[in-house]
Amino acid sequence: MTRRIVAGWEGRFFDDFNVGDVYRCRIGRTVTLTDNIQFTLITNNTNQIHFNADYAAKTEFKRPLINSALTLSIIGGMGVADLSENGFALGWDYITLPNPVFPDDTLYCEQEIMEKRESKSRPGQGIVKAKTRGINQHGLVVIEYARSVMVWRRGSAPTVNIFPEPKI
């Protein structure tokens, strides 16, 4: 049998982006109450609406809310494979949270390319700006933000062919 190495997904490079493209993450992520409590306690967030069901029941929401920083982390992570796997963040223009996230909601991510330009100071890279939306299982947008990412050109990226050859 001949061994054949098949390239895996390596993320998009600056050359691959076009203004108007929309990338949808292929997976959804259900957020649990345990995720929420652990994240909230790790980050020292003392707002009881995230971890005290009795307190949350007395609010307009009637149940705990998912910590918005956790929502941002999950949606941001879901977008890495499509937007920033071959780059790094330069900045965030805005973040809005139009609808709450509750335990057991499933989140999905889509990113729309808004701008693209070559870097003036880094010839092997370019800047891509995207609007990202986190959407729940009901189709409601729960987070939206815009950010800019410095992305490598395919031929300049240090991450190409980094897998070590096994000594067989």
UniProtKB/TrEMBL annotation:
* Source superkingdom: Bacteria
CDD domains assigned: FkbR2 (cd03451)
Q: What is the lineage of its organism?
A: Bacteria, Pseudomonadati, Pseudomonadota, Alphaproteobacteria, Sphingomonadales
Query: Looking at the Swiss-Prot or TrEMBL record, what is one Pfam family this protein matches?
Result: MC_hydratase
List the GO molecular function terms.
lyase activity
What name has this protein been given in UniProt? MaoC family dehydratase
Which organism encodes this protein?
Sphingomonas populi
